[in-house]
Amino acid sequence: MRLGVLDIGSNTVHLLLVDAHPGARPVAFASHKRPLSLVQYLDGDGNINDAGQTELIEFVLEAWEFAARHKAEDLLAFCTSAIREATNGAEVLARVKHETTVTLQELTGSEEASMTFFAVRRWYGWGAGPILDLDIGGGSFEMAYGTDELPEFATSVPLGASRLTRDWLHDDPPSAKSVKELRRYIRSTLKPVVRNFHELGRANLVAGTSKTFRSLARIAGAAPSGAGPYVKRELHAADLGLWAQRISAMKVEDRLYLPGVSDARARQLLAGALVAEAALELFEFPKMEICPWALREGLILRRLDQLVFDDAVDPAPHVGKRKKDKSKKKAVKEGDKKTDNDEPQHTFEEFPVPLNTVPVNNPAPAPIPAPAAGGLAS
C-alpha cells in the first residue's frame, strides 16, 4: 500500500510517499517539500503570526492534493517543536484542521525522539547493540538511548539550530563573543541531561539522524547523497571542532560554497555544528554514524506495524501470493536537476496524474509508547 507522512518541521514542511508492505522495507515513491522556517514567523509573544499560518495552510492543502493524486491510501500528519512550543500552537492546529480537514498530531519531544530511535533501530538491527541516537532539528535537539526497538530514555532540549541562530548569532559573521557565549549555553544545557544517559550504560553505536548531521558529515568529507543510503557515512569529533572554527569565521553567503549546504541551512549551520561538537564531547564519543532513516520513517514503520496487526494490508509480493496491482506505476523520480547542495523541490506540474477524488485517509495514528522523559526509566 502507499503511505504518506506529512512532516511539519521547524525548517521545512515535507510530504513523503512510500510504498510499504509487511516484511519489506518502505520504498520512497515521491516527495513534495518546501523551506518554511516557522520559527522566523514568531512574534514577540511567541505566537506564529498570520503570515506563517497562511504559508502552513497553503502547504498542507498542496500536500493533501499531492497525496490524493498519487493515490496514497493512508496519510500521517504531524508537527514538532515549531508548533509544539508556539504560544498559540493549539489555535494554529485548530485553524489548520478547519481550513484543510487535515488533523496534525502534535508530537512531544520524547515522542519525537522515540520514533526517530525506532527508525534507527530498524535500520541497524539488533546486532548493533545499545544505540544512542542524536537528532538536531530547527527548534529542538532530541536524544534517545536503548537496547530494544523503543528507547529506555528519550528526551528533548531547546537546542535547535534555527532557534539558537535566531537567539544568539545575530551578526554575519558572528562575533567571537557571541560564539563563546553560545558554546557555554549549549554545554550548560546539555550537561545535566547527559548525566542521566551515563547512568544507563555506554552505547555501541552513536547515530546522527538529521539534515544538520548529514550536512556536517558531507562538509567533513562523507559521500554525497547521490552515492545512495548504503554508503557508510561518519562524522568525527575532531573534524567537527575544526569545521566549527572555520564556519564561525565565514559569512552566510560563503557557506553556500561548502558541499551539501543549501540556502535554507547555511545561516544555522554554525549553531548545528556547535551542538554536535558539544554532544560528542559530553557523551565522550570520538565519532558518530549518519543514519539515513529518521522520524518520518519511524512513523511510517509504526503505522505499518499497526496495519499488519489489524490485518489491513497485504504482505509483500515475495511473501506468499498477492494479486498484482496493474495500475501501479513506476516510482516517480523527481528533481532531475538535484544538486549536492540541496534536496529537490517539487511541483504538481511534474506529475500528470489525475486527481483522486477519494479523500485520503487521515487516521488517528497508533499511540506512541512513552519512554522515560526527563528522568531514568523505572
Let me know the average pLDDT: 85
Order of helices and strands: EEEHEHHEHEEEHHEHEHHHHEH
Query: What characterizes the major β-sheet?
Result: 6 strands, mixed
Percent in strands: 15-25%
Overview of this protein structure:
The chain contains twelve helices and eleven strands. The protein is of the alpha/beta class and 378 residues long. It has two domains: 2-108 and 295-350, Nucleotidyltransferase, domain 5 (2-Layer Sandwich), CATH 3.30.420.40; 109-290, Nucleotidyltransferase, domain 5. A hairpin with a 4-residue loop joins β6 (131-136) and β7 (141-146). α4 crosses α12. It is globular. The two termini are 38 Å apart.
Summarize the structure.
The chain is α/β, with parallel strands linked by helices. 38% of the residues lie in helices and 16% in strands.
Keywords:
Nucleotidyltransferase, domain 5; six-stranded mixed β-sheet; five-stranded mixed β-sheet; alpha/beta; single chain; 378 residues; 2 domains; disordered C terminus
Layout of strands and helices, then pairs:
Elements: E1 2-8, E2 12-19, E3 27-35, H1 50-69, E4 74-79, H2 81-84, H3 89-100, E5 105-106, H4 109-124, E6 131-136, E7 141-146, E8 153-157, H5 161-168, H6 176-198, E9 205-208, H7 211-219, E10 234-236, H8 237-248, H9 252-255, H10 263-266, H11 269-283, E11 287-290, H12 295-309
Parallel strand pairs: 1-4, 4-5, 6-9, 9-11
Antiparallel strand pairs: 1-2, 2-3, 6-7, 7-8, 10-11
